[in-house]
Design a protein that fits this description.
The protein is an alpha/beta fold and 509 residues long. The chain has 15 helices and 17 strands. The protein folds into 2 domains: 148 residues, Rossmann fold, CATH 3.40.50.720; 301 residues, Dihydrodipicolinate Reductase, domain 2, CATH 3.30.360. The radius of gyration is 24 Å and the shape is globular. It binds NADP nicotinamide-adenine-dinucleotide phosphate. NADP nicotinamide-adenine-dinucleotide phosphate binds next to helix 1.
Amino acid sequence: MVSAAPCAIVIFGASGDLARRKLIPAIYELAREGLLHDRSFIVGFSRSSLTDEQFRDECRAAVAEFGRTHPVDDAIWQKLLGRIYYCAADYGTPADYARVAGRLGELDGSHQTGGNRLFYLATPPTQFVSIIEQLGQLVPQDAPVEGVWHRLIIEKPFGRDLPSAKHLNGLIHRHFREEEVFRIDHYLGKETVQNLMVMRFANAIFEPIWNYKYIDHVQITVAESLGVGSRGGYYDQSGALRDMVQNHMFQLLALVAMEPPAALDAQSIRDEKVKVFRCIRQMRQAVIEQSTVRGQYAAGAHAGVSTDGYRREKAVAVESRTETFAALKLHIDNWRWSGMPFYLRTGKFLEKKLSEVVVRFRSPPLTLFQKQCQSPVFPNDLVIRVQPNEGISVRLNGKLPGGQMNIQSVAMDFTYSNTFQAAPPEAYERLIYDAMAGDQTLFIRADEAEAAWEVIDPIEAAWAKSAERPADYVPGSWGPAKAIDLIERDGRRWLHTTGEAEPIIACSV
Ligand SMILES: NC(=O)c1ccc[n+]([C@@H]2O[C@H](COP(=O)([O-])OP(=O)(O)OC[C@H]3O[C@@H](n4cnc5c(N)ncnc54)[C@H](OP(=O)(O)O)[C@@H]3O)[C@@H](O)[C@H]2O)c1
């Protein structure tokens, strides 16, 4: 890879948590790898009153604490330091944008970026509309100059339902063409997630069996081991379905379920992902009650943190019905997946932090060992671990060494850290680089975001209408009992939840 073209990176929300933990360290890593152009510069834009010097100190501390590589390389840092600036301003005050525009103009000149600008909206989503309404002040509205670009990266969540996502898209398109818009879902920047496509489409062994005829079902789990912490105010307006399912989990689902794209370009890949969302079977109220589960964590303690329960968290309404856990059973009504279920679950305060996809294959047609073995042999699983310990495992049946024909499920394991002797780059490094390079493949297109909300909205509406509250669950468990029932009544079970070894099947041959 070569360094991207020089540009101004304007970070809205520069004093916030995401900027400190992810964005600034990612930009430093890009500089270290020679992928940030020497003439690119960064302007932080948020409310806190900071000088350039103070902001630079904060950035240095963020890189030292959250950077991927240690220690901070002083030579790289010194080169970057003089290219970091800060403007204290309020997003609700139009005059402040004029001030930022003036400063940007000066810096474009002194750094000779040619006027290329990358705007990164890393603010609470409640600020998106007012920022975008004012962005015209920072994006020259006259005829575009050949080769000069203005691009927008916008954080998740993108809207809170279909109408708000459409409204946001409409506003954005007043200032930016769709080719200039980069809706981020950082899961798409993770190596294992990108590897899903390589695994499916670069290996002949999977494609012929990647359908309802050979796969029994797919499970997607995105579990967090902690509660909402200090983010209760934001979370209570959102909930697990909007915060996790509509974006991260649906992106994983789309990559597992999509058809092979015509080419490896942004348009072809995103065309196929949109088709998946459009094929998800719409559910009526009665089906939603049967096929979805929501939960709220109760009082308890887990992972060294105790809680009085979700409804007692700071900034959460005492009567809140917001779900901190969601499980769904979905069907994708197309030729490949007809009749085969996809189970999704996500939640806070679950047993462990874990994001993975499990593809469970059907059992072999002839169970040769059935007569001799005390129980049926295990079906094969393909496990795609997004975090922690990024990698892929295939579970097979193997003979236990010894005189008897005893069978045990064994794993063929690929982990990034072991195979490549290095931790994969942070998702934000890849994504910021791609946006500077103008590659939209790993970003969400306008119609894709809207199609995902079209699936979510009826579920949210049915939950809002229902007299039932979300079911309580104990911190450190795998969610409410109803979520276990959701899959077990189909004769299946959630897999790999405890990490215990599969039992040995004793056979008398
Ligand atoms: N944090 C994460 O790990 C994470 C992960 C994935 C996605 N995200 C997404 O990233 C975005 C930012 O999240 P965050 O956790 O970084 O939020 P945060 O810590 O609350 O930071 C918010 C930032 O916005 C600024 N801001 C808010 N209102 C403002 C206003 N009226 N005028 C000027 N500045 C204003 C704040 O400035 P002051 O503090 O200086 O007032 C601060 O810099 C959200 O969309 C979130 O969903 C976050």
